[in-house]
Specification:
It is a single chain. The protein has two domains: 141 residues, Fructose-1,6-Bisphosphatase, Chain A, domain 1 (2-Layer Sandwich), CATH 3.30.540.10; 117 residues, D-Maltodextrin-Binding Protein, domain 2 (3-Layer(aba) Sandwich). The protein has seven helices and 15 strands. Strands 4-3-5-6-7-8-9-10 form an eight-stranded mixed beta sheet, sandwiched between helices. Helix 5 runs parallel beside helix 6. The protein is globular. The mean pLDDT is 91.
């Protein structure tokens, strides 16, 4: 039985080492053609997703035997996110991986009683590994992170993502773009939520929002942002829970971003009105 209260920093070191090792699988597979199958119309999975997940599940079970598992490609057992649980996205940005775009991450988090304990986001193609443990700060390759100090939307670089339910969510997506784009410095889409959150933590992005995400997309990144001094909420400012539309910012532009996203929501609710 692993004692989290006494060994959290040591445990984070060990998890980081495992996740970096899993990155070697991605690097090796990067050199060869991918065998792709569809989980949905545009939701892809490869043998790389499955190989990385199998490695991490086996190793993490040995590290903290009492913890459950929630992983993207089907591994799930134990108490779930309300108890002690590993939350794993083996290849965040599978579409990027298939097209050999380097924004591909592996996200591993340990949650306990609904709160993040530690989080790792490894981006092997860019040789960047982000880590955080509760109360211990956030780091990239050993260098401490802090969110940006931008306090105006016109100075803010913002990221978002497009959900797999793009056909059903098109009015909402377009309303958000219409509300946000004219007010901010510019908008980016990386295609990997865990990396977007890591970039908010590192100050490279000032804000990020997205809907339709799963726990494994955000579990590690949430801790990175908060430990770097940022803020996480639902898009309407309420406390975030898995399944909600997420808003992550440096804290300074949080209310302004929330107001823009609420303007977009009102536009969808009242067809024919235009964003302010």
């Amino acid at each position: 039985m692993y004692d989290l209260s006494c060994n959290l920093s040591d445990l984070t070191d060990k998890v980081e080492a495992l996740v970096r090792r899993s990155g070697d699988i991605i690097l090796e597979h990067w050199r060869h053609p991918s065998h792709v199958r569809h989980k949905g119309r545009i939701d892809l999975v490869t043998e790389t997703d499955e190989a990385v997940e199998a490695f991490l599940v086996q190793e993490l079970q040995q590290l903290v035997p009492q913890a459950g598992i929630l992983a993207e490609e089907g591994d799930a057992f134990g108490p779930g996110t309300d108890g002690l649980c590993w939350i794993i996205d083996p290849v965040d940005g599978t579409t990027n991986f298939v097209h050999r775009l380097p924004h591909v991450g592996t996200s591993v988090a340990l949650w306990d009683k609904g709160e993040p304990v530690l989080g790792i986001v490894n981006v092997p193609m860019l040789h960047e590994c982000y880590r955080a443990c509760r109360g211990g700060g956030a780091f990239r390759n050993g260098v401490r992170l802090a969110v940006s100090d931008a306090d105006r939307l016109t100075d803010s670089l913002v990221a978002t993502g497009i959900p797999y339910t793009i056909r059903e969510d098109m009015p909402h997506i377009m309303a958000q773009l219409a509300a946000v784009l004219p007010q901010v410095q510019n908008l980016r889409r990386m295609g990997a939520a865990s990396i977007d959150l890591a970039y908010v933590a590192s100050g490279q992005l000032d804000a990020y929002f997205e809907r339709g995400l799963k726990p494994w997309d955000v579990a590690a990144g949430i801790l990175l942002v908060t430990e770097a001094g940022g803020r996480i909420s639902r898009s309407d400012g309420a406390p975030f829970r898995f399944g909600d539309e997420i808003l992550a910012t440096n804290g300074h532009v949080h209310e302004a971003m929330r107001d823009l996203l609420q303007t977009a929501a009102q536009t969808v609710a009242q067809p024919g009105s235009a964003p302010a």
